[in-house]
Design brief:
Elements (H helix, E strand, L loop, with lengths): L1 E3 H4 E6 L2 E6 L8 H10 L5 E6 L3 E6 L5 H5 L2 E3 L10 E7 L6 H8 L3 H9 L3 E6 L6 E4 L14 E4 L3 E5 L2 E4 L4 E3 L2 E6 L19 E6 L1
């Protein structure tokens, strides 16, 4: 089925940047995978393309190409669909430094929180503000905790942490305000590879405490 970006996205244009969200009729389209599809397409007017789990930003080589891209026909059946394959990442909750804060906020014990966490499927929806920082969706509202208003000077790479609606994994050591619940046993970055991210966008992840 061929559609234009105008057909499937609610569009805003700022010079050479296009921002969009899927309209309700096409809410089933996976926005991060649409961004990857456009970025890897052989379209010479696209300079860069990024997405959150709900929004897309397309940077064009020049602003004069906006209309050309918006009217481009896309076969939406070719947009990748989310994979259902799962991987399990182990984490050590004893290396989480914020459990007292978590227990006070959600009103359950650390072990109860871990038990709930292990039953959930999470989806890698984007890489964020640091190299390799994983944003994962799937955290129920009852388990969400706001980021701290006073960031720490250093959070270690591989730290598993909570930040509002997301659960995240730090790719490198960094200052940060996310709420630490443990440390993963795998490094998800490979700086010796052309693609430094070991996990693809859309990857389904389960966590297991060790």
């Amino acid at each position: 089925m061929e559609k234009t970006l105008r057909d499937i996205l609610d569009i805003k244009v700022y010079d050479s940047y296009i921002f969009g969200q899927a309209i309700s009729e096409y809410s089933q389209i996976d926005i991060p995978l649409l961004a990857q599809y456009l970025y890897h397409s052989e379209n010479h007017v696209i300079k860069d393309c990024h997405a959150t789990n709900a929004e897309i930003c397309i940077q064009l080589c020049e602003s004069s190409a906006v209309e050309q891209l918006l009217d481009l026909k896309i076969d939406i059946s070719n947009i990748p669909i989310p994979s259902k394959d799962k991987i399990v990442l182990e984490f050590d909750p004893d290396k989480g430094n914020d459990w007292s804060h978590i227990e006070a906020h959600v009103k359950i014990t650390r072990q109860q929180y871990i038990d709930l966490l292990e039953r959930l499927d999470f989806r890698l929806c984007m890489y964020g503000f640091l190299p390799g920082f994983c944003y994962l969706t799937g955290l129920p509202k009852s388990m969400q905790i706001p980021r701290s208003s006073k960031p720490k000077r250093k959070i270690k790479a591989k730290t598993l942490a909570l930040g509002g609606e997301y659960i995240g994994i730090y790719g490198i050591d960094s200052p940060g305000g996310w709420i630490e619940i443990g440390e993963c046993n795998q490094n998800l970055l490979d700086f010796n590879s052309e693609n430094i991210h070991r996990l693809p966008i859309g990857q389904i992840i389960n966590f297991k405490s060790i």
